[in-house]
Amino acid sequence: MENTYNIISAIPLFNGLPDDQLKAIRQIAVEKQFKKGQTIFSEGDETRGFFVVVAGRIKIYKVSSEGKEQILHIFEDGQSFGEVTVFSGQQLPASAETLAKSRLLFIPRSAFVELVSANPSLALNLLAIMSKKLRQFAAQIENLSLKEIPARLASYLIYLSEEQGGEDAVTLNVSKGQLASLLGTIPETLSRIFAKLSGQNLIRVEGPKITLLDRQGIENLAEYGKEIE
Q1: Structural domains of the chain in order of their starting residue, each with its CATH number
Q2: Between helices 215-224 and 149-163, what is the axis angle to 10°?
Q3: Torsion of CA 63, 68, 100, 167, to 10 degrees
Q4: pTM of the complete model
Q5: Which of 96, 108, 175, 198 could form a disulfide with 49 if both were Cys (CB 3.0 to 4.6 A apart)?
Q6: Residue-level pLDDT at 216
Q7: How far is residue 123's CA from residue 16's CA, in Å, rounded to a whole number?
Q8: How far apart, in whole angstroms, are the C-alpha atoms of residue 118 and residue 91?
Q9: 29 phi and psi angles, rounded to 5 deg
């Protein structure tokens, strides 16, 4: 396995930390491996720490009383998750499951809190990461509550494009069924919307590859809920 110190030093949460702090994190980090489809934690579990994705893909989700799953977020290499309740000590508000075989680092809560207390630079990095996540969740709430499904899809495609370097050709990092859950709809409806946007020459769909043929039109749909006339 790749040297854990090198992994930690490359993670955005720990970016720019001095060598002694990186070594301190290495001392408390626990390497874990999970198979595809394995539960990492469940909603209501006690907060024992948080995780960093070394390699793999993780979905964070909630299940309604009717049994409907709503995916809240998907995390990939270099991203951390589960840290929201590390300082409050509250129960975990959602569940986590692997979407692919995954290598994770587990950072125990009590040891990490001690490190943050002693290292202001680590606290600032954590604030930056949490601020970014807060903006992402605020955008997701807006999408689910105020936007129609085509606009939600357009917003997600723009988000993917930005995450993948600003290119007009993006690759879906989840199945279309999982994407439907993330957007708060069902696969059949999502398929119809893909077909409609393709018919309007806004996008081209080739398996998991989506090309934004009319980026301005997609951006307009994402923001205003309609295509450019």
Answers
A1: 4-133 (2.60.120.10), 147-224 (1.10.10.10)
A2: 130
A3: -110
A4: 0.71
A5: 108
A6: 92
A7: 12
A8: 25
A9: -75, 140
